Amino acid sequence: MISPPPAPAWNRKHLLGLEDLSREEIVGILDTAESFSEVSRRSRKKVPALQGRVVFNLFFENSTRTRTSFSLSAKRLSADVQDFSASVSSLTKGETFIDTAKNIEAMGADVLVIRHPTPGAPHLLSNHVGASIINAGDGAHEHPTQGLLDLLTIRRAKGTIEGLTVGLIGDIGHSRVARSNIWGLLKLGAKVILCGPPTLVPRGFERLGCEVAHHLDEVLPRCDVVNALRIQIERQQRGLFPSLGEYSHFYGLTQDRLNKARPDLLVLAPGPINRGVELTPEVADGPRSAILDQVTNGLAVRMAVLYLVSGKGDAPST
Ligand code: NCD
Question: Residue 170 phi/psi, 5° resolution?
Fold first, then answer.
């Protein structure tokens, strides 16, 4: 039995980003995820909540964690799940992105989970198809379920998000994870410090209420949580810092740096991690790292989101 979440009823059809959501809606998703995380701890990890519903994963960009996590979450809710890979589809024969989605919808898809290199692609699709759309990452814009699983991981470890100081380290400019983190953390009352080389941290973020900083050694002792973002080499048009070695010298999370931080500092990283660049193996595998908890919490968050966009906002009565 899953107890009903104390969340207000959810009445959105899509999850496109955290920018659009209210504090209450975000808390509602996190509370619903808490009730679903119990399912993941059972030996029989399945509930009939979305039996008969069809979920399609449309991934136009590479992904390991996110695609697998959405598939597994949908299966845990007893939905039928179909993966769609752009590289082996009729897109290579000239079919448009919207036509592809309409054809998939014609097969009875209720929810389309979409990852696309173009910012706004899921929003565009939401105007052309009747199915629910979940944004699984659109270019450097948003990655709302990653933001939500980061919030859940922080809330579980610290008991609250309000009043915490959270440092987002590294390639803020090219990171959709950073944008979703920023919206979610600010709405839930955290102080957000963005720290990285000036070429990777746009000052415009100050207008949203974030602090912008460039010296990790000065910032780290003030943080309750740090999120080490991957250097998004594939999105950088030109060299924005001299070398990965120099980047890790100034911004890499090392044990030496952690020794000067708060003893209860929580270390997050969205993955894939580059050991020795954003953080050393010692830190990634160390006691302050919550990297694998993030992956586990991702399942509960995605179950909650699939459940809520499917119009099941009142209470999981399974
Ligand atoms: C992130 C992504 O794809 O945006 N990874 C993920 O979803 N687990 C972060 C990244 O690629 O650096």
Answer: 110, -130
Q: Would you say 63 and 93 are in contact if contact means Cβ atoms under 8 Å apart?
A: no
Note the CATH number of domain 23-142+296-309: 3.40.50.1370
Q: What is the pLDDT of residues 99-158, one digit of tens each?
A: 888 998 999 999 999 999 999 999 999 999 999 999 999 999 999 999 999 999 999 999
Residue type, 253: L
* Any ligand 1 atom below 6 A from CB of 318: no
- pLDDT of 29-44, one tens digit each? 999 999 999 888 888 8
Is the Cβ atom of 143 under 6 angstroms away from ligand 1? yes
* Domain at 144-295: CATH code: 3.40.50.1370
Q: Where are the domains of the chain?
A: 23-142+296-309, 144-295
Q: Write out the two tokens for 248.
A: 């890790």
CB distance 137 to ligand 1 below 6 Å? yes
Question: Does ligand 1 lie within 6 Å of residue 67's CB atom?
Answer: no
146 Cα to the center of ligand 1, angstroms: 8
